[in-house]
Design brief:
With about 190 residues, this protein is an alpha/beta fold. It contains 5 helices and 6 strands; from the N terminus they run αβαββββαααβ. Strands 2-1-3-5-4-6 form a 6-stranded mixed beta sheet. A hairpin with a 2-residue loop joins strand 4 (about 95-100) and strand 5 (about 100-105). Helix 2 packs across helix 4. It starts with a helix and ends with a strand.
Length: about 190
Amino acid sequence: MYVRTLTGGLAAALVLSVSLTGGQAVAAPPDAEDAPLAARVLLYDAGGSAEFKSAVDRGAAIWNESVDAVELRPAAAGQRANIRVLADNGWPRALPTTLGNGTVYIGRQAVSQGYDTIRISAHELGHILGLPDRKPGPCSSLMSGSTAGTACTNPYPNAAEKTEVEENFSGALAGRAPAARTEVIVD
């Protein structure tokens, strides 16, 4: 009975489809593999970032402008954040736990020495997105961090850094588990 009902329903759907298309063949929808993947949304909580909140928001916006595979959004009240951002008196650092998760510290020590707060924020968020430090390095490399000097205020990732983040998150979106990370990255 079930097979007959199912077969009859499929036949009716086929007849209706052919009549709606005027008897012409219609292309099948693209395979799910060919469809672009939606960005993986990561929530961040900048509630503990004190005077650096606007710099953290701008650093997140820069990553959103720069890559497609991941989107950083502020966590709403009651939402669990993937990334916690805190201000302290030490040097800026990140503690990634897994790809897209961890804690960022915006250290006042670097700010008092003249380093740009937006560059610091974007750089530390870069660690959470899977990027390592690339020291020493030029100002054009966001992940060169403090080695670019206090005169460097470039908060934008370069093409290689963007590509690496895209690759990191396209793999995560494809179902591959990110590698666990437990080291503190001090910049």
